Amino acid sequence: MSNSRFLGGGLHFDELRLGDRFYTAGRTITEADLNSYVNLTWFTEELFTNVIQTHANAMSGRVVPGSMLFAMAEGLLKPLLDRTGLAFLHTEIDVKAPTRVGDTIHVELEVIQLRPAKTGARGLVRTRNNIVNQNGVVVLVYTPLRLVRGLENKVI
User: Fold this and answer.
1) Would you write out the chain's pLDDT as a tens digit for each of its 156 residues?
2) Which residues have C-beta within 8 Å of that of residue 74, sequence separation ≥ 6?
3) Separation between Cα atoms, residue 138 and residue 136, nearest integer Å
4) pLDDT of residue 93
5) Cα Dmax for the chain
6) Is 22 helix (H, G, I), strand (E, B) or coil?
């Protein structure tokens, strides 16, 4: 078993290179997703809860909170960091366009910074993550900095 690799495990710090690019599976956002998120987070703005009085809204349709998109993107990225992600340290988020119930999103990311940690077999990884809808429109961009396990610190 020493020369085999765990199926489902994410990439280690040592396996990443500057400029590496990845993309995730797609995920269609449903009405149930929006309702669950709004109820879980108490994000009860009328923009997300009132389907009747939408005439005063800046955006039409059943729009989705940017924070929900971020959370869904992190879920879509699970295969990349499964058993290797140690800490989420920082990010900046920029919402570029509205997303609505019925849209399908995926994440396209590029490794933009790699730096060994000061201690241990691990490193700091920053990526630029673009959340893209079914029309190829980038709807949200964020740049997380994460602490990622190195190969010498591998979990079996």
Assistant:
1) 455 455 568 999 999 999 999 999 999 999 999 999 999 999 888 777 766 665 666 666 789 999 999 999 999 999 999 999 999 999 999 999 999 999 999 999 999 999 999 988 999 999 999 999 999 999 999 999 999 999 886 665
2) none
3) 6
4) 98
5) 62
6) strand
- Tell me how far apart the terminal alpha carbons of the chain are, to the nearest angstrom: 10
- DSSP letters along 50-119, please? -SS--TT-SS-SSB--HHHHHHHHHHHTHHHHTTTEEEEEE--EEE-S--BTT-EEEEEEEEEEEEE-SS
Helix axes of 31-41 and 66-76: crossing angle, nearest 10 degrees: 110
**pTM for the whole thing?**
0.89
H or E element: which one contains 49? helix 46-49
Half-sphere exposure of 23 (CA within 13 A, CB side): 10
Phi/psi of residue 129, nearest 5 degrees: -110, 120
C-alpha dihedral, 64 to 70 to 73 to 79, nearest 10°: -150
